[in-house]
Design a protein that fits this description.
alpha+beta; elongated; Uridine Diphospho-n-acetylenolpyruvylglucosamine Reductase, domain 3; 4 strands; 50% helix; 7 helices
């Protein structure tokens, strides 16, 4: 959980319960205790109980160490996400003439060389922008889409929540589920010759 996001600020996230209670006592304030924080129906309450038991077994610095590790991981994630956003912008094609109208397109040549941690972040952002259901989009979906880029063996379309993704040459294409695509058959050379012959016969 970050201390700041585009919509929320959490200035007291790094303040411990003991520090909060001490500050309230010094100011003559009676802190209000949220009863939900003691309700075991919530996963966060059960997690705190387990963490307290681990702190007793492993030492009182366990919580602080986990918080420090979380901050380091947040920094790593921010850096990888910024890198992925840059690569995603470069991978958007200038023109999509070989992709069906209405499909989201992504050129994969530049993505293949990226570390998987960066590539899958870029793919996830692209899928969400194309209309994938973010609440249902999981790691297994990303892994299958990533195989279309990094382990291409001619496999067919990949279904992710709300989208179907396929590879067309050097491009990924995504379109919403339920959309019917009509393929226009290309005329065979023999068909073209028959048409010419028929036209000549009509003129005679």
């Amino acid at each position: 959980m970050p201390e700041a996001s585009p919509t929320l600020l959490r200035p007291f996230l790094g303040v411990t319960r003991e520090e909060t209670e001490s500050a309230c006592a010094a100011a003559g304030l009676a802190p209000w205790r949220d009863p939900h924080n003691d309700d075991p129906r919530f996963a966060r309450v059960r997690a705190r109980a387990v963490l307290a038991q681990l702190s007793e077994a492993l030492g009182p610095q366990l919580g602080a160490n986990l918080a420090r590790t979380a901050r380091l991981l947040r920094d790593d994630d921010d850096a990888l996400t910024a890198w992925a956003d840059h690569e995603l912008a470069a991978a958007r094609p200038a023109a999509t003439g070989h992709v069906p109208d209405g499909d989201a397109a992504l050129e994969i040549d530049g993505l293949v060389r990226l570390p998987r941690a960066v590539r899958t972040r870029a793919l996830r952002r692209w899928l969400l922008e194309a209309g994938a259901d973010g609440a249902a989009l999981g790691s297994r979906h990303l892994a299958e889409v990533d195989r279309l880029v990094a382990d291409w063996r001619g496999q067919g379309p990949v279904d992710v929540p709300a989208l179907s993704v396929r590879r067309i040459g050097p491009t990924l294409a995504a379109h919403p589920h339920g959309r019917v695509e009509w393929a226009r058959p290309k005329p065979r050379p023999a068909d073209a010759a028959d048409d010419v012959a028929g036209a000549d016969a009509d003129q005679e």
